[in-house]
Amino acid sequence: QVQLVESGGGLVQAGGSLRLSCAASGSISSSNVMGWYRQAPGKKRELAATITSGGTTNYADSVKGRFTISRDNAKNTVYLQMNSLKPEDTAVYYCRYSTYVLYWGQGTQVTVSS
């Protein structure tokens, strides 16, 4: 079992920044992919960004150039630095850990006001 604890969400004005953190604990594999997904009201959950344990990153087109994903393998923690936030970034952001199984965090709300 893997537990994920997210933090860092909140309310910010358009153009502002937030940093999300997700700490994983439990049966952590040395080879895994961690990432952030988001779900806006009435919409399907979608990819924001992922990062492998080797540091390879992947971003949704909608966040490229504004969001940066990083990780600290020693702390089993993944971060999402979100800059130049827009109202359309408003969503619940979920951390995901994957090897041959998937684990999800409980989600953290990000609200961007115009």
What does this molecule look like?
The protein has strands at 2-7, 10-13, 18-26, 33-39, 46-52, 57-59, 67-72, 77-82, 91-98, 102-104, 108-113. Strand 4 (33-39) and strand 5 form a beta hairpin. With 114 residues, it is mainly β.
Q: Brief overview, please?
A:
By secondary structure, the protein is mostly beta strands. The chain contains no helices and eleven strands. The radius of gyration is 13 Å and the shape is globular.
Q: Kindly state the number of beta strands.
A: 11
Largest sheet features: 7 strands, mixed
Unreliable segments of 5+ consecutive residues? none
How large is the share of residues in beta strands? over 45%
**What would you call the structural class?**
mainly beta
Residue-averaged pLDDT, rounded?
96
Please state the overall shape, judged from the principal axes of the Cα atoms: globular
Distance between the termini: 40 Å
- What is the H/E string? EEEEEEEEEEE
Helical content (DSSP H or I, runs of 4+) = under 10%
| Radius of gyration computed on alpha carbons | 13 Å
Provide a count of the helices.
0
Keywords:
globular; 0% helix; 114 residues; 11 strands; mainly beta
Indicate the topology.
Elements: E1 2-7, E2 10-13, E3 18-26, E4 33-39, E5 46-52, E6 57-59, E7 67-72, E8 77-82, E9 91-98, E10 102-104, E11 108-113
